[in-house]
Amino acid sequence: MSILTTVVGSYPTPQWLFNNTSRGALRDAIMVVLKTQELAGIDVVADGELNRFDPSHPETNGMIDYFISRMSGIRTKFSVTDIKEFRADTQLSYRTDPAGIVFDSVGEGLLNLQREYDFTKALTTSKIKFTCTGPHMLTKVLTDRHYKKRDELCMAIARVLRAQLEMIDAEIIQIDEANISGHPEDREWALPALNEVLAGIKGVRGVHICFGNYGGQSVQKGFWKDLMPFLNGMHANHYILEFARRGYDELEQFKDLDPKIGLGLSVIDIKDTQIESPELIARRIDHAVKLLGAERIPYVHPDCGFWMLQRSVADGKMKALVAGRNLYEGRS
Question: What does the alpha-carbon distance between residue 18 and residue 16 come to, in Å, rounded to a whole number?
Fold first, then answer.
């Protein structure tokens, strides 16, 4: 079985979007991102998350604020008291302000993920991965004054996301969770909500977990072994996990991963501007396959999104990813 190449989601924002956020300019930008991936040979492409581009929130590239600002029951203007309350949460010291204040039942509001997907689908004939920030991460960046229990807020967000994703027929839908890596103790309330979202996905169910890419910085600390009960309890088809930056010593722990769940292997370090050689990528794949078995690794990909790199570096890394996979599999 061939290993497929894919991306995690984001791509460096083309410069013209900073000065022109019209629908036409966005369409041109997404077409460039899709065509760049196709020319590199990527098997499953994504829109670069440009549908969520917002120059006002460069640190998270729209991953948080795009969702929060559109849901009902959440306000995004804060008092000094709101900010002080949020900063008292030591788990979120990398943010200075909350993404929103929950004041009523959370609803879909103006969120329309299907429109985002349909806009992209019309621009490519390749297999598409659609990405969506997960309910755990969204819950953690909110100040809750309505539910008063994190499990209830998280499930409310999950139900909104599930209803949205049920309408999308992408080959892969990937849920992004970049906070749970440092907080395995949240499993009891995060896992049911994530499974609620996954239950609404028609295609391949992927979950991306990394240790943070906030302005190009890792913001979580922990070990994959501590997340194994969480990973084994999720109704995912495969994971998209970070290894290249951290190293591959922890791969041994994934012998304990439920054999029904595939392990997407990251072989590209997105926090380093050095472009990996195909030989290095092939060696990384070979090491993982010998340790875990070829059937366990359906995809290879970068650690995380490319958004904070120069486009030339991101493009070079995608070409190297494909060349390394091809070298490993003996393709010409």
Answer: 5
**111 close to 70: Cβ distance less than 8 angstroms:** yes
Token digits for 231? 């990973």
Rounded to whole angstroms, the Cα distance separating 259 from 125 reads: 32
CATH architecture of 4-329: Alpha-Beta Barrel (3.20)
Please, what's the largest Cα pairwise distance for the chain?
62
Residues with Cβ within 8 Å of 315's Cβ and at least 6 positions away in sequence, in order, are 36, 40
- Residues 230, 219: contact at Cβ < 8 Å? no
Query: pLDDT tens-digit profile of 244-295?
Result: 999 999 999 999 999 999 999 999 999 999 999 999 999 999 999 999 999 9
| Pairing label, strands 238-241, 204-209 | parallel
Tokens of 178: 């970049």
Residue spans of the domains in the chain: they are: 4-329
DSSP-based three-state secondary structure for 217: strand
d(CA 222, CA 231): 14
> Which residues sit opposite 266 in a β-bridge?
301
Q: Give me the residue label for tokens 């996905």.
A: 201
pLDDT by residue (tens digit) across 104-116? 999 999 999 999 9
Kindly state the tokens that stand for 204.
């391949």
> Which of 331, 329, 325, 315 is CA-nearest to residue 38?
315
Amino acid (one-letter) located at 176: D
- Helix, strand, or coil (residue 4): strand
CA distance 292 to 15: 42
Tokens standing for residue 151 = 């499990």
pTM flag (> 0.85): yes
Q: How far apart are the C-alpha atoms of 306 and 263, rounded to whole Å? A: 20
pLDDT tens figures, 115-158: 999 999 999 999 999 999 999 999 998 989 999 999 999 999 99
Q: What share of the chain is helix, strand, coil (3-state, %, to 5)?
A: 45, 15, 40
For the chain, the distance separating the N- and C-terminal CA atoms, rounded to the nearest angstrom, is 17
